[in-house]
Amino acid sequence: MKQRIIGFDLARAYAILGMFIVNFNIVFGTPEKSGFAGQFLSSFNGNSSTLFVILAGMGMSLMTNRVDYAAVEKMTIRATIRKRANFLLITGLILNVWWLADILHFYGIYMHIAVFVLFSDKKYYLFAAIGAVIIFHLLLAIVPFETGWNFETLHYNDFYTIAGFLRNTFYNGWNAVFPWISYFFLGMFLGRLNFREAQTRYRLFLTGLLLYTSIGIVQVLSRHIPMRDDLQYFINANYLPPFLPFILSTTGFGFMLIAGFMFLGNKVSENSFARDLASTGQMTLTHYILHLTIGMALLGVFSNRSYSVNTYENEFVSPVWILIFSVFYFLVSFYFSKLWSRYFRNGPFETLMRKIADS
């Protein structure tokens, strides 16, 4: 369905811009949220990453959105997805040497797990999402979330040990399996919905609005009502650790955006600019890798700062400068995607992944 695909890719293009802003800010920015620019940058924190994971789940679901697969076809599709998952896992682990907040290797693990329920009824995706959130909160009672972390430098001390790697991967990493795979399962559920029906889009938007505003109200009230410090921390924690209020709020935000972009895609599917912007979303993997390598290096040169994930080692870059650079880099990525798509069907790294995984 043409408008569905364009809406999906427009959402991914928006997530790419958010990814640029968040990752540039993590490395070069200030943790302070004062001022309009600082608050604007912080608004992408969590929301862009969760949107990415939801969209990744949607993509996996959309590519298998039929009801008449033969047993042999299902085996072939599962094998292809596992190969792609291995590609993302290995690529992400290589990137992790440079970028400690890598998400690709987590994607690979999400896909390896999700493939087991790929052809199940969509209601089981919701059960799996709820189960992942419950498991995470049970783990909180067993292992202190800060285990392995140096939160002053955002460095994970024992990542390259068996215990540290497993803990980081499944529990307290940037996008650990529990609870982050819940977003992936939610995306798989969305991929099974019929967005050709306006009612589907409206229901999704209203569900997201209810979740987002409800948690927002609770968070505002928590700052004005006397309560225990640990309860207030639970309500207002952001990204690390991803407590239930964070999960519900970011899920709501993602639902609203996806519904909005599906509606927009339906309206502008024949617009040339929208198609060019969609081509940027179709090259998510390429833009992710390039901005963590070339983009980070360029911002380091332009800001006269060396690249380092240890965010407290150097002076911070102005939020305004980070925002300007992020928008500029996005525009460069947009025109690169537009030019590339004239001659090639998939982006450079997407093509490489398909050649390896689909052979």
Spell the H/E element sequence.
HHHHHHEEHHHHHHHHH
| Percent of sequence in beta strands | under 5%
Largest sheet: 2 strands, antiparallel
What is the molecular shape? globular
Query: How many independent structural domains?
Result: 1
Strand order of the largest sheet: 1-2
Distance N to C terminus: 26 Å
How many beta strands in the DSSP annotation? Answer: 2
Helical fraction = over 70%
Report the uncertain regions.
none
Mean pLDDT: 90
Number of helices: 15
Q: Class by helix and strand content? A: mainly alpha
Determine Rg (CA atoms, Å): 20 Å
Please tell me about this protein's structure.
This protein has one domain. The chain is 71% helix and 1% strand. It contains 15 helices and two strands. The protein has a two-stranded antiparallel sheet with strand order 1-2. A hairpin with a 4-residue loop joins strand 1 (149-150) and strand 2. Helix 4 packs antiparallel against helix 5 and helix 4 (71-96) crosses helix 15 (348-357).
What descriptive keywords fit this protein?
mainly alpha; two-stranded antiparallel ribbon; 71% helix; 359 residues
Quick summary of this structure?
This protein has about 350 residues and is mostly helical. It is about 70% helix and about 0% strand.
